[in-house]
Amino acid sequence: MQLPLNALRAFEMSARHLSFTRAAVALNVSQTAVSQHVKNLEERLGVVLFRRLPRGLALTDEGAAMLPVLTDAFERIATMLEQCKNKHSREVLSVGAVGTFATGWLLPRLRAFQSRHPFVDFRLFTNNNNVDLAGEGLDYAIRFGNGAWHGTHAEPLLDAPLSPMCAPEVAARLTAASDLAREALLRSYRADEWTLWFEAAGVPCPVVHGAVFDSSLALAQAAAQGAGVALLPARLFQRELRRAELVQPFDLSIVCGSYWLTRLHSRSETPAMLAFKNWLHDATHA
Fold first, then answer.
1. Quick one: pLDDT band at residue 4, thresholds 50, 70, 90?
2. 230-241: string of b/e by CB count within 10 Å (b at 16+)?
3. Structural class in CATH, domain 91-160+258-284
4. I want to staple 227 with a disulfide (CB 3.0 to 4.6 A). Which of 29, 88, 222, 286 is the partner?
5. Same fold, 91-160+258-284 and 162-242
């Protein structure tokens, strides 16, 4: 049986208030319209839903049986419509980030961004600095380097000087930069980092024979487990330093690049992108 939705709503609201007049106010229609809807519904169902009293209404057994079913149905419809509205108003933002920046800086602060901008449906994809913005469908990519990537607009975010870091038991053997010659010097894919650090220290660079890693996160884990000494951005490993999982035996740091927020020149910035960019700049310069 197909029943008019307006009539069902008129009955449900009248049953809540036990009054056609108050139901009409709630539905923003006339009292006559509500009364007529209910009368038509009773005629189609072949039952009486209300007993009309001098000072209001009383539900019949049939009306009392219908009320909770209709109330639940209308509440479900309202919930579904609200979810559709919220989903429609949210905007997806896809961001690629170097794993070190993602875990060492972004993730501890991500809740603050989401609280401030709940309309952004944030999606994070980590990488080891190799990223294809167009191919991966990314709005932004956070990369480490000098800011020069073809076809890409880049804005500086965060300096990340590199300094030697290692496990406490390894640091106990180090009193001068020259002592590093006796240790395994773990390497990233940027081959000149140790050479630059020893130049800054004024010490000849020894033969670098440590393992090579394509991720600073893996590099840090190896160093924390005593596999050798790694050049790492201490600013992004503050948690490990606080826990003494890693220590910084020397104060000397070198700058080999910075973290940059990048996007394709052809990509117009959406409200979600602008919200994220402005929040990043505020947070990294706080």
1. confident
2. bbbbbbbbeebe
3. alpha beta
4. 222
5. yes
